[in-house]
Amino acid sequence: MSGSRIELDVPGGPTAAFLATAPGWPPGPAVIVIQEWWGLNEQVESLAQRLAGDGFAALAPDLYHGQQTTEPDEAKKLMMGLEQDAALIDLRAAVSWLLDEGATKVGVTGFCMGGGLAWELALTDDRVSAVAPFYGWVDFGDRQVRAPFQAHYAAHDGFDLSMFEAIRAHLDDVAGSEFHWYPEAAHAFMNDTRPEVYRAEDAAVAWERLVSFFRATLA
């Protein structure tokens, strides 16, 4: 699949993004891929390319604007320095860009920090047609989910059980929503560059579910 860096025009200035497209796109469905706290690295780009291989255009905005790291302490600093409102401006610009380029529907997925941002984008932007967060924090407050969701969470993670109860309570907000629990997995089990937590079997099942979900909701 083809992949390249592009620039998104946002109020704060041009923002880089990685774009991977399926043959014949546009038009067709598209997915925004939101990075983990490490930044827009090769692992995130590989996920975008996999989605392109499954028939979607995939766009991964660089929310750190050129910064990335492999060190957890530095990643935490980068994440803490990221303003959610600014990140959402970049992500909404990504939605706009895809729709302007010929996306018929736009979904969003994200991992860890990106999973939380995926939730927030879907909760605040009616143009998002489906959301698939992986182990991302969410606070619904008094809000209802606007699009069908497919939530993926590991049992051996640090989230309070009340959050999972809240997610399950929103399953009826939109038809087609799903909650998937991985009882043997830990946080970041989808990241094949982290052998200490990566679980190939769970990752394969989760990917199959993800693709099926987006094919159903973005068709």
- What is the count of structural domains? 1
- What spatial order of strands do you see in the largest sheet? 1-2-4-3-5-6
- Number of H- or I-type helical stretches: 6
Question: What's the CATH first level?
Answer: Alpha Beta
- What distance lies between the first and last C-alpha atoms, to the nearest angstrom? 20 Å
Low-pLDDT sequence parts: none
How does CATH name the architecture?
A: 3-Layer(aba) Sandwich
Radius of gyration: 16 Å
According to CATH, the fold-level topology is Rossmann fold
How much helical structure, as a percent, in the residues? 25-40%
Mean pLDDT: 95
Sketch the topology as an H/E string, one letter per element.
EEEHEHHEHEEHEH
Secondary-structure-derived class: alpha/beta
Strand percentage lies at 25-35%
Give the total of beta strands: 8
Word description of this protein:
The protein is an alpha/beta fold and 219 residues long. It has a single domain, classed as Alpha/Beta hydrolase fold, catalytic domain (Rossmann fold), CATH 3.40.50. It contains six helices and eight strands. It has helices spanning 42-53, 72-81, 84-101, 113-124, 161-169, 200-217; strands at 2-8, 15-21, 28-34, 57-61, 103-111, 128-134, 150-156, 178-186. The strands form two sheets. Strands 1-2-4-3-5-6 form a six-stranded mixed sheet, sandwiched between helices. Strands 7-8 form a two-stranded parallel ribbon. Helix 1 (42-53) links the parallel strand 3 and strand 4. It is globular and about 40 Å long. The two termini are 20 Å apart.
